[in-house]
Design a protein that fits this description.
By secondary structure, the chain is mainly beta. The chain has 2 helices and 28 strands.
């Protein structure tokens, strides 16, 4: 805590990564998290997807017992697997559809506290299986031998797809691949024996026990003597998209920044300080915009037991109870009134509890009237 000075707190969003910047009095090396999953892309993941990441220990080893993991502001640390190099959490219940948030807080062996956060998308409930369009590249002229016949299906993502080319009593089935979300492509290199007159192109999507069909609005003609038509650009795009897509995602790295503890820290007084004024002002800091509940109790000094008994103040009594909001820098101030009977040796017991995002943390302070 002694390293934190001139605290500021801003929430910045960059590719859905949440940064929590803090000014430190000494230069530090950010403790990054790499290969986090799910990543902060626009691709939605399944509701039961695991959440994980790898600690980059170049900034110092991670203290396992300090790691806290929050998913949508809920502390899931107890249900997580945590090692000095890795953390993982598998949801007990399905994650809600739409935007989800992860925050990881931890400390390294150098005593530096860090925080990393990111967002990811979870699939919404799947809609009914449907095909919105079926198109092909043989709409204007016949395709000759050596040409590439290309069909595109647009429809519900995540299905098994195929294309059927019908010509009277014959049918040819072509497998289709999902090259982007809800876009399926099938292609066929035509040979000298491929001949079709006024053929019908039908797209097929299957998922679970449901199957839907959709037909292209224009017929297809294959004529071996027709002009050769190539779609090399489309083929290249398809190959790049479908060939081992897991290897195409660059390594994900999240830059960690120092975290601000929620536990209130008093900046105006230290534990055991003496008060030499009638009443006093408490100043402290916590996370920005946190609510801080402060309770101050007093106990009579040992030198004035008789007076305390006669006035009913032998036991501790509450001098102040109030709740204040920390400002955007996490600073808060509380004015404590003087006791009804001001006497040297009075003991003040201060309890401050900060609350934010469903979490709370408490700090105590003992002071004595001079």
């Amino acid at each position: 805590m002694g390293l934190l000075k001139n605290t500021c707190f801003n929430l910045l969003a960059a590719t859905s990564i949440v940064f929590i910047p803090v000014l430190w009095s000494e230069a530090t090396v950010a403790q990054n998290i790499v290969n986090h999953s799910p990543s902060q892309t626009n691709e939605a993941v399944a509701p039961d997807s695991s959440i994980s990441g790898v600690f980059d220990t170049s900034g110092g080893s991670v203290e396992v017992n300090t790691v806290k993991i929050f998913v949508n502001d809920q502390d899931v640390t107890r249900n997580s697997t945590i090692t000095p190099n890795f953390f993982s959490y598998r949801p007990i219940q399905d994650l809600p559809p739409g935007n989800n948030r992860v925050r990881v807080e931890y400390q390294n062996t150098n005593g530096q506290q860090w925080a990393v956060g990111w967002n990811f998308q979870v699939q919404r409930p799947q809609v009914a299986l449907e095909i919105t369009s079926v198109t092909h590249n043989a709409t204007n002229t016949a395709l000759g031998a050596g040409s590439t016949f290309l069909t595109t299906i647009n429809g519900t993502p995540g299905a098994q797809a195929s294309v059927m080319v019908l010509d009277g009593a014959t049918m040819r089935r072509l497998p289709a691949q999902e090259v982007s979300r809800g876009v399926y492509v099938a292609n066929l290199n035509l040979g000298s024996t491929d001949r079709i007159n006024d053929g019908v192109v039908v797209g097929r999507l299957e998922r679970g026990d449901k199957t839907v069909y959709g037909a292209a609005s224009q017929a297809v003609v294959f004529n071996p003597s027709a002009t050769v038509t190539q779609v090399s650009q489309v083929e290249t795009t398809t190959t790049q998209t479908t060939e081992n897509p897991q290897n195409q995602t660059p390594q994900n790295t999240l830059t960690a920044v120092p975290s601000i503890p929620l536990s209130p820290e008093f900046t105006s007084h230290k534990n055991g300080d003496q008060i030499d004024t009638a009443g006093f002002t408490l100043k402290g800091k916590t996370q920005p915009n946190a609510r801080v509940r402060v309770v101050v109790e007093q106990a009579a000094s040992s030198s004035n037991i008789l007076g305390a008994i006669t006035t009913g103040l032998l036991n501790s009594r509450q001098l102040l109870e109030t709740t204040v909001n920390a400002d955007s820098n996490g600073q808060f101030t509380v004015n404590v009134p003087q006791p009804r009977l001001l006497d040297s040796g009075i003991k003040y017991s201060v309890t401050a509890t900060a609350q934010k995002d469903g979490r709370s943390d408490t700090t105590t302070l003992s002071l004595t009237q001079r």
